[in-house]
């Protein structure tokens, strides 16, 4: 039986608008900033392979589930989960899943905005030709200079938060839907140009083999968790962003086809970013595992050497800002939609309140790179903890709960009615979601916590 509910926040104009918005959410700092540096820190090839495996077999089925729940519930993730749980005769406490997502979104945005601030600052530098002929050393000290100064970081973080909340306050459809249409293809073209440059930089083969030669001895349980967590992060899964976007999706659109296009685009951007960056890393004798500063210390060197480098550098950082911007709005949209539905205050007010809260938490990340750089708990700074807890714990955990709800709690009639797929496709989705996705996530989590070894030892294996 088809359920007819309406979203009080409006609807996407159609299939393409949804694909663009969700791709805008998925493609972001995760692809261009985070993927290369975590691949670098975790030894490359084997990590990348595992990440691709997670995207295909865990990410896609869970993304379909999340869009499906959103479209059926047509409210913010908290109310959607409550409504659907009641409809399926399950406990209303499923709404806690929505809560966890709303909180994860705010926590992620709090540090995401600080990193996006780096991109803002680098855009300014690029326009002024700061990277012209820059050496590897100067590039390193330039980055160190930026992150070492807390008030500069705070300024850029504040600016990025204002940009984000401005768009969210206008409603998603007004500005961003249009901007993303143009900017995502432009980003792709620019990345291809960068890869073209990397091919000539002398170390292309070395870069490619780092990225694609899988040596599984380099893979620890921790890096398996990072690869899986990143699959959730990069597809914006497990926290309700995709659910909220699904709640604005018109009835007729095929969820499976849309989701596959989104995942393909997202993966392409990440791989291209890796192919552009690692050859430059090796050609300049830099460290692939140098951490969060990786693209900010390598790319300027490339831009500094290429003809029309000033133009390409400015364009690149501008597009990176847009990619981050379209992701950032999806990170707070669940919280803002909830606040509006709950209190009926205006969208503007709700945006200001959530923006202030997120901005405030972000100050912790700002300090993590300077005055709190040495204030570590178990070897991790405030920023490291935020990133670890959200990407490696909350998102996979949220993802598993979404899978459990979609494939175990929800009746077959409801999910097949909403997914509207052929029999084969539907069975495949259900199998992957019901078993594979859930089991994989649980195994990795148990391995990291040491629980798996304990169970295996008990079983005498
Ligand atoms: N997918 C975004 C990126 O890769 C980040 C994000 C995570 C956005 C979760 C929304 C929800 O940059």
UniProtKB/TrEMBL annotation:
This is Transporter. CDD domains: SLC6sbd_Tyt1-Like (cd10336). InterPro entries: Na/ntran_symport, SNS_sf, YocR/YhdH-like. Keywords: Membrane, Symport, Transmembrane, Transmembrane helix, Transport. It is found in: Membrane. The chain crosses the membrane at residues 44-64, 96-120, 150-168, 180-199, 227-246, 258-282, 310-340, 352-373, 393-410, 431-452. GO terms for cellular component: membrane. It is a multi-pass membrane protein. It comes from the Bacteria. The keyword Transmembrane helix applies. The keyword Transport applies. Belongs to the sodium:neurotransmitter symporter (SNF) (TC 2.A.22) family. GO terms for molecular function: symporter activity.
